[in-house]
Design a protein that fits this description.
Layout: H1 3-13, E1 23-25, E2 30-34, E3 48-49, E4 55-58, E5 73-77, H2 95-101, E6 109-117, E7 123-128, H3 142-149, E8 155-165, E9 168-177, H4 185-198, E10 207-210, H5 224-231
Parallel strand pairs: 9-10
Antiparallel strand pairs: 1-2, 2-3, 4-5, 5-6, 6-7, 8-9
Length: 259
Amino acid sequence: LAPESFDYVYREIKADLLLASISGGTDILSCFALGSPILPVYRGELQCRGLGMAVAVYDDDGRPIPAGRGERGELVCTAPFPAMPVGFWSDPDGSKYHAAYFDRFANIWCHGDFVELTVSEGMIIYGRSDAVLNPGGVRIGTAEIYRQVEQLPEVVESLVIGQEWQHDVRVVLFVKLREGASLDQALIDRIKQQVRQNTTPRHVPARVLQVADIPRTKSGKIVELAVRHVVHGRAVKNVEALANPEALEFFRNRAELQS
């Protein structure tokens, strides 16, 4: 949950309750990070790592990042765990299973989330690792931008990618606006100002484009990687997993991204 969601729940619903933000996965039938009734709740954080889970955060070189250092990295699990799958269906040689979780670090489950362990031993999730932006070599989680952009009343939802551009990566933001709203220069300027004031100049999108819809999986998750493939003219895998695959066409061959 975003920090603002914690504010809303405790202000509008009830001040005295346990708000537990959780993160896991379908494949593991459990959570790597979740809530606990005996620990304090910190705004914007998942309270703790799951019991029976050797959860850690690794840097790009496979070194553990200690809690409280303020650095972000890959969410990993360094030992087998009770609900760990033994394999995938119709994957007799285990190659799909290995590619999904063990390609990044040898014999280490790499879950694909870009996260931080806080000084309170809680966790903040900044987005999927494969969707992390990298302008000028600085890694940025997509959630950092979504939290700012979607505070504007005109924006219903958004999707951001890194577009390969002139030997670097530029941040491109797509927005779905409420009915009757249009993306004029004034709104673009407000979006950029909101991002700049609450994050860093590196987070500010180089291009802001309007789309009629945003593609998502059947479980409701937006698909940055699929959109990035479309923008770069690459084939999209697992289109059958999308609830609205036709939405990908709103991102294809956009003239605004050719210059």
